[in-house]
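ugh ok fine here u go
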Amino acid sequence: MITKMTEIDFALSQNSDTDKIELVGTVLWNKSHEAGHFTKLSEAEQTFVFIDIFESEINRNGLFGFFYNTSGEYAHEVLQAFQNVKAENSAAIINDAIRVFKALPISKDILQRRQQISKLKQEELEVWSELEFQLIESKEDIITLLINYIALHKTDFEY
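structure:
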């Protein structure tokens, strides 16, 4: 019996972990565009996308930018995604960042969320800076955890 190699199989067969992640990301973002929105993907696929969104936002704008921009709408889903891939240290840091907000869950409405952020005191904003530093200093290998998660849930990533 001949089995057809899926795009996810192909992505996972790459030598470089970075190439694996980039190819899976390309497959999922293409699939999400075809579906109309990434929230129409499977839970496992969304886990990848939420981590991708978080990492992208953090690298550009830090925790303030993550919560302030549209990405902040998915703060609780991002936390769950890190828990899903067993990134306990990162999940704990993200949980601490979420808890800076006075009212939980964090609003999905960007204007309400921005209003909540504008009411934070300087020392509360500095908590985010410290947590960003903890994320940077973390030795947690998110890429390997994510690749292991994809391999474990490969059938949920079929395209």
